[in-house]
Specification:
The protein has one helix spanning 2-24. The chain is mainly alpha-helical and 58 residues long. It starts with a helix and ends in a 34-residue tail after the last helix.
């Protein structure tokens, strides 16, 4: 039982340590942004186009 707990804690320490290493060594200037926001874009436009108004009510 004790050996199992030690292995579990070792695995958790390895995962947490590798995440901390990833964050510490991250270089944001070397990466391209995955999205961008255009200030002149219509905020109500969806990817499907305009929303139809079948009942004539706004």
């Amino acid at each position: 039982m004790r050996k199992t707990l030690v292995l579990i804690f070792a695995a958790l320490a390895l995962m947490i340590g590798s995440f901390i290493w990833f964050v510490v060594t991250w270089d944001a200037s070397a990466e391209k942004p995955i999205s961008s926001v255009h200030p002149d874009a219509d905020p109500y436009q969806t990817h499907t186009g305009t929303i139809p108004n079948p009942y004539g009510v706004l």
